[in-house]
Design brief:
Layout: E1 3-6, H1 11-21, E2 31-32, E3 42-43, H2 51-61, E4 65-68, H3 77-98, E5 103-109, H4 133-146, E6 151-157, E7 159-161, H5 170-184, E8 193-196, E9 202-203, E10 205-207, H6 208-220, E11 228-231, E12 237-238, H7 239-250, E13 255-258, H8 270-274, H9 283-289, H10 297-309
Parallel strand pairs: 1-4, 2-3, 4-5, 5-6, 6-11, 7-10, 8-13
Antiparallel strand pairs: 9-12
């Protein structure tokens, strides 16, 4: 089976590729925004390619399934729209031309739901009320995919954590800060201070390796799937608790200070404070894919910290 992974060099894409490489009878045509330095590989840029050009590339790749991990989490509204909304639209148009029978697995985001109700897990039929451009552009991408007429499923992913987490997300950013603080304070004594923003929000954290497994299961599943499936840890974790767990894993013995809007503070944001609760109901993914998260949060944070120390960490 030929599985084309788009966004294969990004955080989640790398884990998807690693998972696929462990499967027998699976071929992985290479495609990315750059093919420099390699004789093999197809150039794909969902933000700029036309549907016709992409259709020619897809015809050459001849995939049985496409897993779209390409996406932008930061940038201005134009950048977010180009990648998160235009990208899926172009991909769907190209697939209809070149590979209409291929299964499309598109990674969406729990940010599409917007603020949740305290103590409630959101199902796939819940109202979508994203607060900012990121959630809004991801929701528009989901709408494009689910209305495409293709054999497609959107996986609405919670907050990924685990090895390779980039500094654009809170777990990776806090790991980088802890690493810097440890370098400045070799003994990580009580004089060290980690200044962060508001950490009072609750989030649904899921290991990136579990996300990859869900994406592969969706790509290989026989028969049609629901249009949208939540992929998360299934539990709400206070961000403050995650930070303290990671600090303990790092051996940090100093103080953690948090104050929204404080000078020099990082980790946490006004947007996070506005969305004080997010938690996904993952029952449908269990029924459709026989998928459940397998990595407890402590194990994900241990892997994140170990990975952050390998060669100074990685970049997305």
């Amino acid at each position: 089976m030929r599985v084309l992974v788009l966004g294969r060099t990004g955080y989640l894409g790398r884990h998807v590729v690693a998972h696929l490489r462990g499967l027998p009878d699976t071929q992985l045509p290479e495609a990315g925004r750059s093919t420099a330095g390699a004789g093999a590989g197809l150039r794909v840029d969902l933000a700029t390619d036309s549907p016709d050009r992409l259709a020619k590339t897809l015809a050459e790749a001849a995939p049985d399934a496409v897993i779209n991990c390409a996406g932008a989490t930061a940038g201005d509204a134009v950048t977010l729209a180009e990648v998160n909304t235009r990208g899926p639209a172009v991909l769907c148009a190209a697939l209809r031309q070149a590979a209409p029978r291929a299964r499309l697995v598109h990674l969406g985001s729990a940010a599409e739901y917007g603020p949740g109700e305290q103590g409630t897990k959101v199902t796939e039929t819940a109202a979508t009320r994203p607060l900012g451009p990121y959630g809004a552009t991801k929701l528009a991408g989901t709408a494009v995919v689910t209305a495409s007429g293709l054999d497609a499923v959107v996986l609405r992913v919670g907050n990924p954590v685990g090895p390779g987490a980039p500094p654009t997300g809170l777990p990776g950013r806090v790991a980088a800060l802890l690493r810097e603080t440890g370098a400045a304070e070799p003994e990580a004594g009580t004089g060290a201070v980690l200044r962060l923003g508001d950490l009072s929000a609750y989030r649904d954290f899921v290991d990136a390796r579990d996300v990859a497994r869900a994406a592969v299961l969706a790509a290989l599943a026989a028969g049609p799937l629901p249009p949208v499936l939540n992929i998360g840890g299934g539990e709400a974790v206070r961000v403050r608790d995650l930070v303290h767990l990671l600090a303990r894993r790092a051996g940090f013995g100093g103080r953690i200070e948090e104050a929204a809007g404080a000078t020099g503070a990082t980790g946490g944001s006004a947007r996070s404070a506005a969305v004080s609760w997010q938690c996904s109901d993952i029952t449908a993914a269990g029924e459709a894919l026989d998928w459940r998260p397998s990595y407890p949060l402590e194990e994900s944070l241990a892997a994140l910290w170990a990975d952050a120390g390998a060669e100074g960490g990685r970049t997305p």
